Amino acid sequence: MRLPDSVTGSFLVVLGAAAAYGGYILPPVPGQPVGPNVFPLVIGTGLALCGLAIVFGIGHSFEEEEELVPLEDGQAAGPPPQSKLYGLRALLPPALLLFYVLAADRLGFIITAAIMVYVTSTALGAKWKLALPLAALSPFAIHLIFGKLLRVPLPAGLLPTPW
Fold first, then answer.
1. Are the beta carbons of 104 and 157 closer than 8 angstroms?
2. Is-contact 16 38, C-beta < 8 A?
3. By C-alpha distance, which of 51, 30, 49, 47 is closest to 39?
4. Which of 45, 66, 70, 158 has its CA 20 to 30 A from that of 109?
């Protein structure tokens, strides 16, 4: 049984609002511009906004799927054939998490995250012309947000970190 989008979106709005409120009531750490209250506040607000987008159908196409074209012998065509490795895509998130745990200290955050982003984007169907720049730029953006702004220590690994 599938839940309607309005139920799913409403649940995300309530969950996001609860997380944002929890972050709002946490006291900030004196002398630190970004304390432990900021992360749940930002994540909760983003989750609530995404839930509202789902409720109101923003970015969603409500077009009907095309009907199957009948074959020459009068039978309806089936769905397109899937590769033998299609079912293994479910193992990708735990495999990448295990890879990160094992490789982050040795290779460093930047290299490990770049490999993870490239593998994930290509597994989701992105061409290498999009996956490669995404894999090169996103770890640096994450490093700037978490390493510099939030001061979360990230493993350096093979790359010296003068930045």
1. yes
2. no
3. 47
4. 45
